[in-house]
Structure formats: structure tokens, C-alpha cells
Write the C-alpha cells for this entry.
Amino acid sequence: MCDQGCGLEVSVEDGQPVRIKGSKRHPYNKGWLCTKGRAGLDLFHSPQRLSSPMIRREGDLVSVQWEEALDFAAERLGRLRDQYGPESLAIYRGEGIGHQEIKYYMKRFANVYRTPNFIGVGSLCHFSKTLAENLTYGAGTGPDIDNTRFLMIWGGNPFSSHEPVVPGEISRLKKRGGKIAVVDPRRTETASKADHHLPVKPGRDEILALNMLHVILKEDLWDKSFTDKWVQGFHGFCEKVREDGFSPENGEAMTGIMPDLVRQVARSYATTRPACIYLGNGLEHHSNGVNTMRLLSIMKAITGNLDIRGGEIITPMPKLRDMNMPLPQPSIPPVGSQEFPLFCKMRREGHVLAVPDAVLEGRPYPIRGMIIGGGNASMEWPNSIRVREALRKLEFLLVIDVVRSPDCAYADVVLPACTYLERDEHRVNADHCFHQISLRRRVVEPVYGLPDQMIWARLAKHMGFEKYFPWKTCQEGIDYILGDIGVSYEDLISQGGIYEYGKREYKKYEQKGFPTPTGKVEIYSERLKDFGYDPFPIREDVLEPFQESGEFPLFLTTGANVPYFVHWQYHYISKFRKMVPEPVFEIHPETAAQYGLSDGEMAQVNTLHGKIQLKAHVTPGIRQDTINIPQGWEEANANELTSEEDADPISGFPNLKSLRCRIQSGPH
């Protein structure tokens, strides 16, 4: 139901799954399941599932047999390549298929086809954090909440979102006397359980991070032994951040946070060992997201919390076989590599934000066809109006999904994928700080559709690529991927579905250094400099105030998850729609009174880029200068209000969390 990989136990009777519960022996969720996890049977039995392949004929999608659909798709894809070159095809991997095994099949297909334009949801989600940490440490980290004493959750809401933090970990931390601070413009479910809530002004997390660093450095609260030996560029950074301009008192007007609260939280974090920071997706979607997360990565390091028990764990990945080796990479650069060169280099793929320009304007070259697997570009991508225009212009669009997603409205071919209960798949759990590979085992044969892996293998066969896709089953693919570590599908089964490829070790840098060019934590990044970016994490104009806008006086933050949905996914599950029947926007009571709005009243929200109508939900749990709109509603699509124009220059992530808006009461 999401990509977090919770352990499940499924009961099957007469060839049908009848019960799902959390697996108590799984090290991640330990038996716990969220609302979505408990709804696996609702997805399996959903009347919205695609039951057969479809081809568009005379304007309508009609059901056909698999061979006909695959032949048709292969012929159209071959025509695209022959007429316009392989780069004319883009392949988009959405959140719906996860971030691991299926991705490898898709990327392999792109390489064999010779298109450089394999593009993933990493253009929009999570990788901005990964990029910031890799620039700083050369690796990603995960918070060791089970063993920490102080947890700061910045821009995340684990009690509601599908994030790699099980709520039980936070509850156990509270029970053993640990402290929690939450930074979020909203008083979320998680913030309501915190000891400290810092409702920062949208887009000013960067200033708040600098204010906390100012306290830590001005009061000599950093770990001197670690920093002297392992942090490159510290002294110049320390001198800069100690300047009065970065004090909490100076920052209050920009962040909206009282200086005493900033000082209290900064001191508690720096002096409580061990401590950790969970960086949520809410930090990524601003025009300064990477720099903000670089600052927080530096904070983790200089307080001595890197790779220690209860701190920030660096968990190495297993040495799996790369499905794309020894296939050569396409020689033409992907779209987005001019605008976001570091991102595209690190990801070895293109960027979502460059696709509409390539389709509509032929920049840097035309994209004329797309394959979308487990995604929903018409609603996930910013500036939905322009994205839909691009989808309509494509000469060929193939959609692979479990249900009839909104993107199917633009598709020439639709291929049905089966649910997770009907396919085999492996998962590496390093992002949860475990040295483990787990097996998602098929419990029944597919009722409808095929496993995504086999859809790509069969499409490849129809394209004449069969020698590059020799796997006849998902099990054979798993055996291939795990072959270099001597593990097979059957081995995973024999070990209860979990294979340990290593043991947790702390302070690994003491033996090997950090995997950065200098072998140290890097505050000054030569890699950024090599790509034309400022190598210093403090922007020259960082203290400049927001430009006030009389036309758009409020801040708009979008994309906060409701517990029942993952973006658009699962809006079609009837019991979830009974719980949340319609979209609403959150607004503070005093702000609602100012606009003459009452709870449940229809209003129009406008930005510079678009407008939507939805009802108001009046709540004290949000800043007075801010409104919040959830994501994934077709009838009130928040991405009709967003744009690609104010993207982070390093990651290319769009600004979804600190836009300016205005509201008008009543229907329009």
C-alpha cells in the first residue's frame, strides 16, 4: 500500500486472501499496521481494478487481449524510435510501484531502448534529502529513534503520513522519558504529542536552522573532538553563523518563533546525548530545500550524533547485482540535465520538471511518447494544467497501473498490474537502519493483471529485447539481482522472508572515513562548486525578507497527507471516502473570521498560477498567516495552484509548501 515495507501475515482460504495483520516478528513494524496497511483486502477486491488491457479506439478505451495490447504498444514504441530517435520516449516511474525492484526493470528497458529519459518520482519526493546528506556525508542517514533521548521531527508527521518512522517508536520514546520537538506550520497529530512545537513560517526553515546553529556555536555546545577531526570547513562556517544577524532574536520576525523557544530547543538538542533529527518531506518542497537540509545535516554532525547509537545511523546497502550492467548508458543527456545537472548526474536519470517543456516546446529536444508506471503525472506534477496539456499532445502514452488512474484519460494503451498480494518482490531495508533484505511473497495467483516486472519483460519480448529480459518469473529476477551476495529466492523463504546481510556497527568512519572526496563531513562542497553552485551552505541573500504581496497575503502549504491516502492512491476505496468524503482546506479561526468564512463553507483559493474551489475547515491547529490544502483530490487538485517556476536550483524540487495565495468566500 506504500513503499515502507511493513511485515504482513496474510491468511488464505480457498485460494483467496481473507485476513491481513502485521507481523510481530518483522523488525520494522513489529506487528503494527496503519490504516492503509489494514486495507490491503479492500485494494485486492476493489471494483476499480483494471481487469484487462485496453487500447484506445475511436476515442474510447476498449478491452483487448494481452498479446494484442503488447503488439500494439511495441509497434508504436518502435515507430517512435525509428522516426524521432530513442530520446523521444520518456519513462516515468511513480510512487505506486515503490523505489526498488520494479524500478530496475524499468531502467533496464529504458537502457535497451536507448532513451536517456528514465525519470522517477525522486524528482519530486525524498531524494532532495538524500542529495543534501550525500553532499555532506557521502551517504544517507536514518534516525535511531528506538535508542535516542531527544528527537526533533522537522517537516514530517509520522502519525499521519507514510514515512519511515513507525508511530510506536515515538510513543515508546515518550514512555521512557525522551523529549520530542516538532517543527511544522501546523499543529499536526505528531506535534500535539511533542514537548515543543515550533510553528515556523512557511519557507523559513532555513532561517530557523541557522538560528539554532547560532545558539549551538555561540554557546560552544558542539562536539569539539569530532568536529576538529572529522569536519572540513568548520571554522569559516562557525565564524559566519556566530554573527548577530543569525541570532534567534533577529530571526523571530522571519520565522515567527519566539527566541526563548529556539534557544531552549537548540540547547536541549545539543546537550542531550544521543539525539536525532527526522527530516520530513515538508522540508524538501521549497526553493531553498537542499540548503536547509544541508544546514540540518551539519547540525547533526557537529553535535557528535553521526553514526552513534540513538543518533543518525549510516546503513550501507548490500552489493546487489546492477540490472543495468553491462548495458551502456545512453549517450544523449536526459531532459533536465541542463537545468539540474547535479541531480541528473547523481540519479542517472532525467527530471520531471523538464518534461512538459520537451513535449510542448521541444526543449532541449522533443519528447513525443511516454510510459507511466504506477504514477499519476496529471495530478502529481506541479502546474497540472500544463502537464495535462503535455499529455494530450503526446503521440503515444502507455499507462501501467492497478486501477484506472486519471492519467488513463490520455492513454493510448493501458496495461493492468496486479496488487502486491499477487507478486513476488524483494526489498532492502537499509532506509530503516536495518542490514536486511526482506521478501514480499505472492500469496495468490493474479486475479487481474500481471506483476509489473513481468509486464516489462513481456513488453521487451514484443519489442525484440528478449535476450535482455530472460527472466520468466519474478523469482528468477530476484535470483539474478541477489546473485552476487549468494542469496536466492528460496533462501529468503527458508529464512522466514528476512535475510541479514550485515550487523549494525557504529562510528564506521573511524576505520574508513566518510565516503566524500575529503573523507570528512563537508561543509564547503567542491562537488557543488564543480557543477556551478555555491559550495557554501549559507546563501548570500538568506536574510532578505519575504516580499510582501497585497494581492496574495497568505501562505499556502500543500501536500500534507491524510492517513487514508497516498497522494491520489486509495481515494477510490469506499470506506476511506466515508472517513474523508471531500477535500477541505485548513484555516485558522481568526483568519476565517477576517474573510467571513465559517466551517464547511465553500471558498476559492487563488495563486499566481491557478485557482480551485473547496470547503473551509476552521481549526486552531495552523498558523494565522497560512492555509493548508491536501493533495490528490481530482475535484480540487492542489497542483493546479503550483508551478515549476520557483524550484530549488540544486534538486529541482518544486515549491509546494511556501506559495502565496488569497481566498475568496463563497462559490465562484
Residues 64-125+341-500 form a domain with the Rossmann fold fold (CATH 3.40.50.740). The first strand starts at residue 8 and ends at 13. The chain has three domains: 64-125+341-500, 127-312, 554-665.
